[in-house]
Amino acid sequence: MAEKKESKSTLERVYTVPLRSAFRNAASHRKTNRAVKALRAFLMKHMKSEDVRLGQHVNQLLWQHGIKNPPARVIVKAIKDEEGVVRADLEGKTFKESVRPIAKEEESSSLKEKLVDKLGGKKDDDGPPAKEEKAPKQSGKPDKPDPSAKKQADKPAVDAEGPSSKPESVPKKE
C-alpha cells in the first residue's frame, strides 16, 4: 500500500487513499468537500504532521467531475520536509501549490483603502474630499430651500459656555 523512501530528514511515501467511505453518506452537494477533508486527514495521520498542503494536480483531479462526483480513490505521493510540512501531489507529477486566497491580514481593512488601492490615488487622512459647490440655476424656477439650513434654524442657539440648565455630565456638542 505504501512505499517508503527516506533521505536526510525528508520522508517520501506513495499512498492509495480510499475516499469513497468518507463521502458515501454525505449530501450530494458536499461530496467533494468531504473527499478533500478525508485526504487531508489521511495524510495528517500517516505522515504525522499537522501542516498538509495539496498540490494543484490532486485538487484538479478531485474537482474534475464537480462537487457531486469525486473519485473513489486517489494515488498520491507525499513528501515531508525538515519543517514538518507535507506536500502531496499525484504520483508522477511535480508539486505545484494550489492558488490560495489572500489572508485577511494582508487585505486592506477599510473600503476607503480598497478604493484607493484600486484607483491608485493618494490616501487622504483629512477625510472625504470637499464637494464642489454648483453654480445657482439661472432658470425661472425658484431653488428649493436647503434642508440642512432649516434644521439649524430649529435648534436653539447655545452660548460658548453651554446651557446652564443641563447637568455638567452631558458632553457639549461642538
**Lateral arrangement of strands in the main beta sheet:** 1-2-4-5-3
CATH level 1 name of one domain: Alpha Beta
| SSE-based structural type | alpha+beta
Number of strands: 5
Report the mean per-residue pLDDT as an integer.
77
Instruction: Give the H and E element order.
Output: EEHHEHEEHH
The low-confidence parts are none
Beta-strand percent range: 15-25%
What's the main sheet like? 5 strands, mixed
Radius of gyration, taken over Cα atoms and rounded to an integer in Å: 32 Å
CATH architecture of one domain: Roll
CATH topology of one domain: Ribosomal Protein L31e, Chain: W
The count of helical stretches stands at: 5
Amount of helix: 25-40%
Question: CATH homologous superfamily name of one domain?
Answer: Ribosomal protein L31
